[in-house]
Amino acid sequence: MKAFLLKIVLIIPIFFYNWEPAPQEFQGQAIYFAKSSLELGSWGARMSEAQKKQVQARLKNRLEKTFVLNFNKSESVFKEEEKLDAMSGATDSWGNNFSRGEQYKNVQENALVQSQEFYGKLFLVKDDLPAISWEMSSETKQIGQYACFKATASVPTEDLSWYDFSWGDLRNSSQDTADASGEGSPEPEVKMTEVEAWYTPQIPVAHGPGEYWGLPGLILEVKTGNTTMLCSKIVMNPKGDLKIEAPDRGKVTSKMDYRTTIIDKMREMRDNRGRRRSR
């Protein structure tokens, strides 16, 4: 009888050990739709409604974008779905020079790697993730099948749009340089962007679209200024492995050095155009 009991004691631990489920890699894919309202300002006041609609149709690809976020527990890849221009049937090559490239984030290592292209030249931007001090709220709402909580933050605008440029940036950079050169002059004012985010603890990862991250659940919606980015579809653990790898092509640089390089290049282009006109 003792021998029989001993066999039971020995067999039962082995039985449970053999049936312990193997850990699985956690993966997911989220689709985001981003829409920005067009602010024409004083220029738009002189336009008819028909002209405004024509401008909006022409800029549709820049005002409405679709993005894909592939993620696991610690890593994510975020990129835009390229589409043809609604009027010309071509891709927006000019806009691509000032848009976000493929973006890799590793929240465990606080690492960002982003591929950028400017007039055919590839850059590989490696830097830290932006520091976002979120203020959590108890306010909730439903997005699809997910219960979401609200969080807000005030973030330096340049941290969120370091890859985006306009010709107005040349004037601003020149003014900042002039102000900084003055003895005893105050530090240039840091522009801030107010961010409203909605995240779901039902998907317990610290990822989000674009620069946004660091909440205790996947960020499904972000509002900043005149732009809203909303998750329209989520697929958890899809069939087949998702590609979640950092881009590796291009000249390695930091966010600050990348901005300096592009602004210098834009200034050179502007000056060359001015010299041609003066001939």
Please provide a written account of the structure.
This protein has helices spanning 2-18, 41-45, 49-58, 60-63, 93-96, 157-160, 168-181, 255-278; strands spanning 27-36, 64-72, 75-80, 103-106, 111-118, 121-128, 135-143, 146-156, 192-200, 218-224, 227-236, 251-253. It is of the alpha+beta class. The protein has a single domain (26-39, 46-166, 189-274), classed as Clam (outer membrane lipoprotein receptor (LolB), chain A), CATH 2.50.20. Strands 7-8-9-10-11-1-2-3-4-5-6-12 form a twelve-stranded mixed β-sheet.
Low-confidence stretches: 1-23
Main sheet: which strands, in order across? Answer: 7-8-9-10-11-1-2-3-4-5-6-12
How many domain units?
1
- The CATH topology is outer membrane lipoprotein receptor (LolB), chain A
Distance between the termini: 109 Å
What coarse outline follows from CA principal-axis ratios?
globular
Helix and strand run = HEHHHEEHEEEEEHHEEEEH
Could you tell me the mean pLDDT? 82
Just name the CATH architecture: Clam
Q: What radius of gyration results from the CA coordinates? A: 25 Å
CATH class: Mainly Beta
Estimated share of beta-strand residues: 25-35%
Keywords:
279 residues; alpha+beta; outer membrane lipoprotein receptor (LolB), chain A; twelve-stranded mixed sheet; globular; disordered N terminus
